[in-house]
């Protein structure tokens, strides 16, 4: 694994960032993570993936994540670049696994907002097991 990446750190960072980073960033991170878990993914691709995920989870980056509205822009760019570089390792099964996990956490996007968040709102209470 790339230096700076740990599975536990990834899940903890993803849980903390999920609400603020948004669905798109989380789905890209999960797509990369699931691609890296496949034994068929080449070592060079895993290196790219773990490097991008390490950048995502490490607190020091180009735009600090706590900066309102723009804090995850650099993370999104890094994840998107990594996805482009390792596109051959992104199978339909990897995409489906990431999409399912995001749907589990955020919902399917068909809920209608009633002005205030209902109790148990999936976006506000993301539990990562």
Automatic annotation (TrEMBL):
Cellular component GO terms held in the UniProt record: endomembrane system
Domain DUF1232: 45-80
Main location group: membrane
InterPro entries: DUF1232
Pfam families named among the record's database cross-references: DUF1232
Keyword Flavoprotein in annotation: no
Name by which UniProt lists this protein: DUF1232 domain-containing protein
Compartments where found: Endomembrane system
UniProt membrane topology term: Multi-pass membrane protein
Coiled-coil annotated spans: none
UniProt entry keywords in alphabetical sequence: Membrane, Transmembrane, Transmembrane helix
Keyword Transcription regulation: no
């Amino acid at each position: 694994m790339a230096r700076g990446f740990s599975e536990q750190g990834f899940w903890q960072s993803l849980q903390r960032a999920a609400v603020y980073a948004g669905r798109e960033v989380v789905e890209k991170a999960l797509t990369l993570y699931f691609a890296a878990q496949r034994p068929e993914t080449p070592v060079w691709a895993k290196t790219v993936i773990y490097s991008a995920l390490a950048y995502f989870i490490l607190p020091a980056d180009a735009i600090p994540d706590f900066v309102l509205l723009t804090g995850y822009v650099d993370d999104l760019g890094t994840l998107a670049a990594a996805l482009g570089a390792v596109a051959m390792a992104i199978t339909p099964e990897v995409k489906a696994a990431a999409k399912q996990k995001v749907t589990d956490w955020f919902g399917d996007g068909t809920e209608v907002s009633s002005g205030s968040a209902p109790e148990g709102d999936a976006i506000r209470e993301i539990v990562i097991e």
